[in-house]
């Protein structure tokens, strides 16, 4: 968008930088409705991200591996600190926690089928574990959330690992919400709520209030499951250096750090765009915290929030993550924001349904309405039929497989036989901001802002 | 049925809990006595069979947490989160209970003969709680289902943001929370209170209680309310 006058004749048409059309729309919308905008997906604003980093492939000083022939290990172990049965995954790419409620039962099943075929894990969400999900997903991480909707010891014992959710990147410090149109009879029953209420998920856990309490809470979860299952602690990225240290102090086996690009099914836009720090900055702080405690490699780090490509995965791993979790990318692979949906052997146009929501393919963030035109973020009996578990699983499998191939391609080019051998020294930054946040030098220099020359 | 004693002064907690999860399920032992708890956390958590456990003394955090089917009695006082997320069975505290007692309990009965601290019955999801004494502020916060009988007084913001849980209070209420209101006691309410008092072994006149439930004005977003409920 051109914001400066092209010449003096157009001065009377100069758009204000501070009061551009987007801001005017926002003010008019607020004035008309008296209510903030609630929407799905993650931050839309431009943020420093993994695209601002590049790899230093092998050349004279490093020796590369043959791209297709030579072995490159992707096996990933999570939860080795205290758990008797750590999680062993074939790839370092996991499926992020997304609730049944936000997503349809079909989608949850798609995730499980694809993850099982790929040798990775899926994660429950607010609202508990569905039987479809447990059946389809070989490795299922069970979230313990502030709301405790549907939380119960039987499912806890069925889980392969437990994730205590403190917050998420889209809204650190905020609880959840699920608007009434998605609280159908099954969702309502699982959450012990009246049907159709605009449901609020608590922002604080009901039975502990700080890291010292959390240590006891984690011990309780371990005692209940006889110290078998790894315990993850998930935090939204804010004061990440301190939060990761406190999570480790509390006894976490694995820390999950979700940056501000992380998605949501329904949150205030002001929250999505203005609270939290970018994933790039959070990874560096999280790794620094683990290194500071001499816990790197003992407590594993999972990074999420805006991981889209194999290059993103490789960069997160190089910065020190042990694995990544993907939410929005997964939904897009299933058909989110696509022009068509695939049902009964044929593609069907969904554009009219996007238009009815006031949006279009490529821009849709209307997960909160429950009227997902491609049948993903819905509890509607007709819409949810637009995605079959098998078709969804096939696309998701292809997507994650592609990411994994890209990851190993980059790792081999950097001379690594194991993707976990990627290191910060393999990276440089293209912008000063990214260099400062990621703690890697600006390309072509030895300069890491904040660390002198 | 056999009786077994664990002495936490001599045996680690993990041994007790592991027995309660595995050995107890064989059904030979009907009663376990826990000696010298000395405020240890996570005593008798995650039980999954109809065994009786008596903790002789004071328990720390989360005693009887996530209980299913078992009956856990604590002769002393209990720390934070006693019987949190209980599914069924009974947890009986003879003394006092700290914060978050019975938090998010889906079922079962929690009896506290003395007073309970802050946020008693927070996020209650179908369990029943009977408190012989008083409860602290923000009790029954966001409680979704189930009942709480409070024989003493209640602190500030009782029943804030209630869903379908119902509260009965005999004593003074310092203040009600957002969206909570007093309602008429029906015959069914009096019978429910009488039954819960009976199960708890507490002697009070059920007609002396007042009923508190949700106004349901927070069930849907309302822009005109300016979030000042």
Provide a descriptive summary of the structure in words.
The complex is a heterodimer of chains A (about 450) and B (about 230). Chain A is an alpha/beta fold and about 450 residues long. Chain A folds into 2 domains: about 10-35; about 50-440, TIM Barrel (Alpha-Beta Barrel). Chain A has 14 helices and 18 strands. Chain B is of the alpha/beta class. Chain B is about 10% helix and about 25% strand. Chain B has helices at about 15-20, 185-200, and strands at about 1-5, 30-35, 50-55, 70-75, 90-95, 110, 125-130, 145-150, 165-170, 180-185, 210-215. Chain B is elongated.
Give a quick rundown of the structure.
With 453 residues, chain A is α/β, with parallel strands linked by helices. Helices cover 32% and strands 14% of the residues of chain A.
Global Rg of chain A: 22 Å
Q: Can you tell me the CATH class of the largest domain in chain A?
A: Alpha Beta
Q: Which ranges of chain A are low-confidence, i.e. pLDDT below 50, for 5 or more consecutive residues?
A: none
Biggest sheet strand line-up of chain B: 1-2-3-4-5-6-7-8-9-11-10
CATH topology-level fold name of chain B: Pectate Lyase C-like
Tell me which protein chains meet in the greatest interface and how many residues each side has: A-B, 35 and 43 residues
CATH 2nd-level architecture of chain B: 3 Solenoid
Number of domains of chain A: 2
How many E strands of chain A?
18
Query: With helices defined by DSSP (H or I, 4 residues minimum), what is the helix count of chain B?
Result: 2
Structural class of chain B: alpha/beta
Shape of chain B: elongated
Gross morphology of chain A: globular
The first-level CATH class name of chain B: Mainly Beta
CATH superfamily of the largest domain in chain A: Aldolase class I
